[in-house]
Design a protein that fits this description.
Metal Binding Protein, Guanine Nucleotide Exchange Factor, Chain A, three-stranded antiparallel β-sheet, mainly beta, about 5% helix, about 150 residues
Length: about 150
C-alpha cells in the first residue's frame, strides 16, 4: 500500500469545531463497507485514512469514546456527533480517521475497498481499486483481492 510520508501533516476536526486533531505519517487509505461503519456513519460506505497512533493527537477538545464492538472503539464529538476515528485493540499502534473530517479531504485518495462482502446491494462501486471480502490487505497473511 502507500508508503509512509513523514512530513505529511494532516489537520482536521468535527462539524462544530469543538474537537480538532493533527496526524502525520499516512499509512494507507480505503473504503470500508462493513455493517459497523455503515451504521456508525449512516452511509453505505465510509472512507478512512490510517495513521500510526503515536502520530495522531487531539489539539482541541476531548473525544468521547464508543465501544462499537468487542475489539473496536470510535472517537466522536459529544457536541455535534461527528465520528472522527476508529481504533482496534487488535492493532493498537494504528488509528483510522474518517477522511471527510480532514480539513483537506481531497488530499487523500482511497486505495482499496474492504469488507465488500457487506456491501449494500444497491451501492455500485465504480472504480478499479482492489476489493477485499474482509478486512483487507495484510502482508503477513498475503491476502488477495476478491475476484
Amino acid at each position: 500500500m502507500s508508503v509512509s510520508r513523514p512530513q505529511d501533516i494532516r489537520l482536521g476536526g468535527c462539524l462544530c469545531g469543538d474537537l480538532r486533531y493533527r496526524a502525520s505519517e499516512l499509512i494507507d487509505a480505503g473504503y470500508c463497507h462493513c455493517r459497523l461503519c455503515q451504521r456508525s456513519s449512516g452511509s453505505p460506505v465510509l472512507a478512512w485514512v490510517g495513521f500510526p497512533a503515536s502520530r495522531f493527537s487531539y489539539t482541541k477538545g476531548e473525544a468521547t469514546i464508543f465501544a462499537s464492538s468487542d475489539t473496536g472503539r470510535r472517537d466522536f464529538c459529544a457536541r455535534c456527533g461527528t465520528q472522527i476515528a476508529f481504533r482496534s485493540s487488535e492493532v493498537p499502534d494504528r488509528i483510522d480517521v474518517n477522511i471527510a473530517s480532514l480539513d483537506d479531504p481531497a488530499g487523500v485518495e482511497p486505495e482499496y475497498h474492504i469488507w465488500v462482502e457487506s456491501q449494500i446491494s444497491w451501492f455500485e462501486i465504480d472504480d478499479d481499486l482492489p476489493r477485499f471480502p474482509d478486512d483487507g490487505p495484510d502482508p503477513a497473511l498475503e491476502r488477495r483481492p476478491a475476484e
